[in-house]
Each structure stands twice: as structure tokens, then as C-alpha cells.
UniProtKB/TrEMBL annotation:
<feature type="domain" description="Histidine kinase">
    <location>
        <begin position="368"/>
        <end position="588"/>
    </location>
</feature>
<keyword id="KW-1133">Transmembrane helix</keyword>
<dbReference type="Pfam" id="PF00072">
    <property type="entry name" value="Response_reg"/>
</dbReference>
<dbReference type="InterPro" id="IPR003594">
    <property type="entry name" value="HATPase_dom"/>
</dbReference>
<keyword id="KW-0472">Membrane</keyword>
<feature type="modified residue" description="4-aspartylphosphate">
    <location>
        <position position="660"/>
    </location>
</feature>
<keyword id="KW-0597">Phosphoprotein</keyword>
<dbReference type="InterPro" id="IPR005467">
    <property type="entry name" value="His_kinase_dom"/>
</dbReference>
<dbReference type="InterPro" id="IPR003661">
    <property type="entry name" value="HisK_dim/P_dom"/>
</dbReference>
<feature type="domain" description="Response regulatory">
    <location>
        <begin position="611"/>
        <end position="725"/>
    </location>
</feature>
<keyword id="KW-0812">Transmembrane</keyword>
<protein>
    <recommendedName>
        <fullName>histidine kinase</fullName>
        <ecNumber>2.7.13.3</ecNumber>
    </recommendedName>
</protein>
<feature type="coiled-coil region">
    <location>
        <begin position="275"/>
        <end position="302"/>
    </location>
</feature>
<keyword id="KW-0175">Coiled coil</keyword>
<dbReference type="Pfam" id="PF02518">
    <property type="entry name" value="HATPase_c"/>
</dbReference>
<dbReference type="InterPro" id="IPR001789">
    <property type="entry name" value="Sig_transdc_resp-reg_receiver"/>
</dbReference>
<dbReference type="Pfam" id="PF00512">
    <property type="entry name" value="HisKA"/>
</dbReference>
Length: 732
């Protein structure tokens, strides 16, 4: 019996070993795939490059070749770098460096360190960290005596120093590159080299030489078809021209830079490559899962052998230990059950902790990304408005109008994401404001006239005569619901009509129940899709036409209506149009309406010239805020940080202080605390890109009087300024 069992086990093991044996990939084949993926990436075909990199990486892992693994991770990271996915690029460059450090190959180590230097200097703007990677790359270049790689790295170091205005520190690196080019004519660095010489002579105020080198960089970039280097040359040349107040040519070069970037990062390529990038990440997850499954198989085999041994032992002493065997089995079952329960409990605790951490990280991410987007948007929107006001001849410029529309659209996207986040965290409380329903509906209609004209649509407003003139409720949230629904109707309707209908269903004890319908004759929604449209990030009807949007609008509508204690219904038929219907309750009370109106703060204007101090570190924001204030005939002084603000307040008095929050050296909260400690009672308004609800408590504790979120309307700013100044003067 034992002999038969042993023979069976031996054949089973030997057969499994034979079945698991597969033909290993050839290193030469992997090299060929890696080279092909690199060429595809350099030509801009990111989709195929990522696909082939996946295949090459799988084969490299099978043969355990760390050099090839590092090469392919480096190529994947380079693809993500070109696709502007910088965090993913850094992640995969670091993975490449881990495998490269397992080898003696200094060439691949040099390249990866150089690439990480590029990421931190030019994408993350962490120049100190990036230059450390460049210096490591130089050390490896010296080991392999590769003068061309040393030239490239010196080129990057010079560029990094010049980018942050440290021309003295980068001067020696530029000299080395110029000396190298005289000995070795290398077209791959020629365009950037001329651009850097232009930047250096611009710093030296040698305008003729600077312009010559910029023009030479642009000429060579066109000749060599080096689109990326050419785009940067146009950008730096535009900066040079802007300093020389040659605004026309500066604008032309900036426009060329934008167009080249659009060509390099075409939407279709990015979308296809994004799909392939997701597939690559799925492969990474699959490899992790396979590893876990292999470990489980080994554990299973080990457990299986142990069971066989136990079984043979039990058979040998069955008669003597029958009762003991029963006790052992019961004890093992109990211990295993307890262990499983303890393990499950530990996993639940870990999962709960991770869920809480994820929620915190999500909130922090939304806050950070909104701040990072709103800050440049303030500059874009502000400069666009200033250009339109100061140069009336540009009012019909399609480029300027497109820029303004794109900035407003991006701001709307940020607000949508924040809105969803606030609703999910139950941070929204409905307000009670008095409003005229007819005026509100017409305001929404007029706000969306741009989309209506674009699609050649007409919007009709129908209001039931039974509805009172003034209602009480949260008109801002109500307007947001209407804006989302009507903009959707206009977007999915061409050459048609959109009807906005308000009917009173009933009135009980001053509460008016009003039914709102938004009806269009657009493309309609398929029955299968009607249950999906209120989910987040879901869009339907995109098969033939690319409708812009985030897929958040209807989700926000549904959640806002839940705050009103209501729901929304949809009726639609493909090709026949769509009707959205919801019911809301508003209060009508003449007494309450008069109380609300009497409590509204009136924007009292004054002929007096007020003196305003602006504390702001961003030079573009300084320009916009100063122009906006002076346009209203106010006196304005701008300082760069909190320390300068404290100094100037020792010698001068101001009527109002506009304080940025996120500043280097000393932030806005700490600056305000120190101003109050000095006994200065001048009203302080926080101008910030952070969400107002996130900083209100800290702003009040610091001693601030009000908060305005950038970008803002100038009317809103001056209303708050006048109110605070007049309130302060009346107290005095």
C-alpha cells in the first residue's frame, strides 16, 4: 500500500513539473521589442509603445533579466512623462532604478537618474532634488566615459538653473556644452543649446546676441523637425520679447508654442494611450495576484503533504489512538475556526482604517487640486478680462474668447468636483433667500445664451400666473439645478427648442409646490441608459459627437434635489427629445420677504478714495488685483510677503488689507495674527484659492474679517470692501 502511494505521488510531482515547463523567451527578441517600443514612443505613438513595453516587460520578468526589466520600466515611465502623467512617470522611473541598482550596468543607471532629474526639475519644479539626480547621472557618465551623455546632463542642469533664474550657477554647465559641441557636432542638443545661449545673453542684457540665438534655435527646430525643443524655444523667445515690450511678436511666439503642444499631445493619441496605460497597470496588478496565487499553491501542496503524513500515521496506530484522533480533529477544527475569525477580524480592522484614510486623502486631494487649479485660473481669467477691457480691438478675437471660455469651463469643472465632495460629506445647508422666480428663470436662460447660439437653439420660459412674484428658498442651489439641466438640453439639441416650464401644483399654509419641466427635442436618451445618467462621471450619447462635460451635472442635480426633499424623473425617446421633471416647495410670506430684504447689506458706494494694501506672492495675481482695484479709483500698494506687510504697516495706514493665504516665508494666517498682535484693527479680507468652508474657522481665529475665493467677480470684491470699510469707520 505504501509503495503504491509513493509511486503515485512521484508520478504526480514529475508530471506537474513537465507540464509547468515552458519555452523561455530569448533575450535578443526582448531587445528587439524594447527598441521598437522606444522608437514608437519617440514618434508619438504612445498607445503601441505601451502595448509593446507590456509584452517586453513580461518576457523580461520571466527570464529574470534586471537590465531589461529596468529598460522597459524606464520606457513605460517615459511614455507617461510624454502623456503628462507625471506622478505615474516618477513611480515607474523609481521602479526602473530599483532593478537597475541590482545590476552593474552604469549606462542604464545614468539614463534613469537623468530622467528623474528631468521630472523633478521641469515637471514637479523641485529643482534641488532634481539636480541631485542629475549629479548622480554625471557620476555614472564619468564611469562609462560617455561624453555625449555628460553633455546631455550638463544641458539639463544648465536649463534647470536658468529656469529658476540662477544663471551664475548654470554658467559653467553651459560653457561645457558649448565646448563639447565645438568638438562633436550633435544635432540632438543643438536646438536647446541655442535656446539656452539666448536665455543667458538675455540675462546679460545683450539683446542682439540673445535674439540671434533664439531665432537660430527656432530655425534649427523647424529644420530638424524637433517639435518639443522648438515649442520651448518659442516659449522662451516670447518671454524675451515680452520683457522688451514687443507684445505682438511675444504673442505670436506664445501662440506657436501652444499650437506645437497641441500637435504633440493630440487628444486621440492621449486617449488611446491612456487605455493602454490602464492595461499596463492591470498587468502590474495581475503579476502581484499571480505571485500571491503561487504562494497559495505552495502552501496548499505543503498542507496536502502534511495531511498525507498524518493520514498514514493515523492508519498505522488507528486501533490504539482512535479516541485521541477524534479529540485532535475536534481541537484542530476549533483552533482553525478561531484563527480564521481572528484573521477576519484583523482584516476588517485594517480595511476600516484604510477606508478612513482614503476618505481623508480624498478630501485632501480635492482641496489641494482645487487650490492648484484655481490659482492659475485666477491669472488666466483676470488677464483675459484685462486684455478685453484695455484692448477693445481684441473683443472679436476668437483666440482670446476661446481662452476665456476654456478657463470658465475648467473653473466649472473644479466647482462640480467640489460640489459633489461637499454633498457626500453633508456639508451643504440650504439658505433662505427671497427671489423672483420669473427673473431667476430668465437669468439662467440668458447665462446659457452662448450654448444656445452655438447649437442654433431657442429657449422659451413659461411661468404659471398663480405663482407669487417673490418666493423664499435657496435660490442659488435652485439656479444651479436649472443651469445643469438646461445646459444639458442645449448641448444635446441641434437647431431645436428648449422649454423651461414652471407650474404651481398646490398651495398649503404659504408653501407653494411648484413643478419644473425642462423639455427639449434633441437626440434623446435610450431606455437602457436612463437609469445610468444620474451616476457620477457617466455620459451617454457620445458615439458620434464628442459632447464636452464631466458627467457630474446630473449627479449634482439629483443630490441637490435630495436636499430639497425632492426627486427627478426623466422621459425620453431616441430622436424625439427628453423631458426632466421635478417638484420643489418654496415659501411665500410678505412679512418674511420684507425682513430678508431689510437685512440685505446694501453696497454703499463712496466718492472717497480708499487706500488698499495687497499681500500676494504671485506676480501675475499681483498685477490682476492691482489693476482691478485701481480701475475702481482706489489707491493700491502691493507687497510680496507677510514680513513686508508688517514693515509697511509700521509707517503707513490703510483702509483695507487683501491677504493671500498660501505664501512662502509666512502664510496669510500667521501674518494676520501678527498684525492683530500689533494692535492694528484694519479690516482684512482673505483672497484665496482654497474652498471657503475649509479655512473659515482658522481665518476667524487669526482675526480675518471676510473671505473671497479666487477667481472672483470685481463687483463682489468691491461690495465687501465698501461694506467693511464703512462698518469700521462707523464704529470709530
Amino acid at each position: 500500500m505504501r509503495i503504491v502511494l509513493l509511486v503515485f505521488l512521484w508520478f504526480n510531482f514529475f508530471g506537474a513539473a513537465l507540464n509547468g515547463q515552458t519555452q523561455l523567451p530569448i533575450k535578443r527578441e526582448i531587445d528587439k521589442l524594447t527598441t521598437q517600443a522606444t522608437k514608437l514612443r519617440e514618434s508619438g505613438n504612445f498607445e503601441k509603445s505601451l502595448l509593446i513595453s507590456r509584452i517586453a516587460l513580461r518576457k523580461s520578468i520571466v527570464i529574470h533579466d534586471n537590465v531589461l526589466i529596468a529598460e522597459n520600466y524606464n520606457n513605460v515611465a517615459a511614455n507617461y512623462n510624454d502623456l503628462v502623467e507625471f506622478d505615474k512617470a516618477i513611480f515607474y522611473y523609481n521602479k526602473a532604478l530599483i532593478y537597475a541598482n541590482f545590476t552593474e550596468n552604469d549606462t542604464i543607471k545614468q539614463r534613469i537618474n537623468n530622467n528623474l532629474g528631468n521630472m523633478y526639475c521641469f515637471e514637479k519644479k523641485k529643482y534641488e532634488k532634481g539636480i541631485l539626480y542629475y549629479r548622480k547621472a554625471l557620476e555614472y557618465s564619468k564611469k562609462i566615459t560617455d561624453s555625449s551623455q555628460m553633455a546631455f546632463t550638463n544641458l539639463n542642469i544648465a536649463w534647470a538653473f536658468f529656469d529658476i533664474g540662477k544663471f551664475k550657477e548654470g554658467r559653467e554647465n553651459l560653457k561645457m556644452i558649448n565646448a563639447y559641441y565645438k568638438k562633436h557636432a550633435n544635432n540632438s542638443i543643438l536646438v536647446v543649446l541655442n535656446m539656452l545661449n539666448g536665455m543667458y545673453f538675455n540675462y546679460k542684457n545683450e539683446d542682439v546676441k540673445a535674439e540671434f540665438y533664439f531665432k537660430e534655435a527656432i530655425r534649427l527646430g523647424k529644420k530638424l523637425n524637433a517639435k518639443s525643443d522648438l515649442s520651448f524655444s518659442h516659449l522662451e523667445f516670447s518671454k524675451f520679447l515680452l520683457q522688451r515690450k514687443d507684445y505682438k511678436r511675444a504673442y505670436e511666439n506664445l501662440d506657436l508654442y501652444t499650437k506645437l503642444n497641441d500637435e504633440i499631445y493630440a487628444d486621440e493619441k492621449l486617449e488611446k494611450a491612456n487605455v493602454e496605460g490602464i492595461n499596463f497597470e492591470l498587468d502590474e496588478y495581475k503579476r502581484t495576484i499571480d505571485k500571491i496565487e503561487n504562494e497559495k499553491d505552495l502552501q496548499y501542496q505543503s498542507l496536502k503533504k502534511s495531511r498525507i503524513i498524518v493520514l498514514l500515521f493515523i492508519i498505522a496506530i488507528f486501533v490504539l489512538l482512535l479516541f485521541l484522533n477524534s479529540l485532535i480533529k475536534n481541537n484542530r477544527f476549533r483552533l482553525k475556526s478561531n484563527a480564521d475569525l481572528m484573521l477576519a477580524n484583523e482584516e476588517l480592522i485594517v480595511a476600516n482604517k484604510k477606508a478612513q484614510e482614503s476618505a481623508i486623502l480624498k478630501t485632501q486631494f480635492v482641496s489641494t487640486i482645487s487650490h492648484e487649479l484655481r490659482t492659475p485660473l485666477y491669472g488666466v481669467v483676470g488677464i483675459t478680462d484685462l486684455l478685453l477691457e484695455e484692448h477693445k480691438e481684441l473683443a472679436s478675437s476668437p483666440h482670446l474668447n476661446s481662452l476665456k471660455f476654456s478657463a470658465r469651463y475648467l473653473l466649472s469643472l473644479v466647482n462640480d468636483i467640489l460640489q459633489i465632495n461637499k454633498i457626500e460629506e453633508n456639508k451643504i445647508v440650504l439658505d433662505n433667500l427671497t427671489f423672483n422666480l420669473t427673473d431667476e428663470l430668465n437669468m439662467v436662460k440668458n447665462s446659457l445664451s452662448f450654448i444656445a447660439k452655438k447649437n442654433n437653439n431657442k429657449v422659451y420660459v413659461h411661468v404659471d400666473q398663480l405663482i407669487p412674484e417673490n418666493l423664499i428658498g435657496d435660490k442659488l442651489r435652485f439656479a444651479q439645478i436649472l443651469m445643469n439641466l438646461i445646459s444639458n438640453a442645449l448641448k444635446f439639441t441641434k437647431n431645436g427648442d428648449v422649454h423651461l416650464i414652471a407650474n404651481q401644483l398646490k398651495e398649503v399654509a404659504g408653501i407653494h409646490t411648484i413643478e419644473i419641466k425642462i423639455k427639449d427635442n434633441g437626440i434623446g436618451i435610450a431606455p437602457l441608459d436612463q437609469d445610468k445618467i444620474f451616476d457620477k462621471f457617466v455620459q451617454v450619447g457620445r458615439k458620434e459627437v464628442d459632447y464636452q462635460g464631466t458627467g457630474l451635472g446630473l449627479s449634482i442635480v439629483k443630490r441637490l434635489l435630495e436636499l430639497f426633499g425632492s426627486d427627478i424623473a426623466v422621459e425620453s425617446e431616441l430622436g424625439r427629445g427628453t423631458t426632466f421633471t421635478f417638484v420643489v416647495d418654496f415659501e411665500y410670506s410678505a412679512t418674511k420677504t420684507n425682513e430678508i430684504i431689510s437685512n440685505i447689506q446694501v453696497d454703499l458706494t463712496s466718492s472717497q478714495v480708499f487706500k488698499v494694501l495687497v499681500v500676494e506672492d504671485n506676480h501675475i495675481n499681483q498685477l490682476i488685483t492691482k489693476k482691478t482695484i485701481e480701475k475702481n479709483n482706489y489707491s493700491c500698494i502691493v507687497v510680496d510677503d507677510g514680513f513686508q506687510a508688517l514693515e509697511i504697516l509700521k509707517t503707513e495706514e490703510f483702509d483695507i488689507i487683501l491677504m493671500d493665504i498660501n505664501m512662502p516665508l509666512m502664510n496669510g494666517f500667521e501674518t494676520t495674527r501678527r498684525i492683530r498682535q500689533e494692535g492694528i484693527e484694519t479690516p482684512i479680507i482673505a483672497l484665496t484659492a482654497f474652498d471657503k468652508n475649509e479655512i473659515t474657522d482658522e481665518a476667524i481665529m487669526a482675526g480675518m474679517n471676510d473671505i473671497i475665493v479666487k477667481p472672483f467677480e470685481s463687483v463682489q470684491l468691491f461690495k465687501i470692501i465698501n461694506c467693511l470699510i464703512l462698518k469700521t469707520k462707523s464704529v470709530v
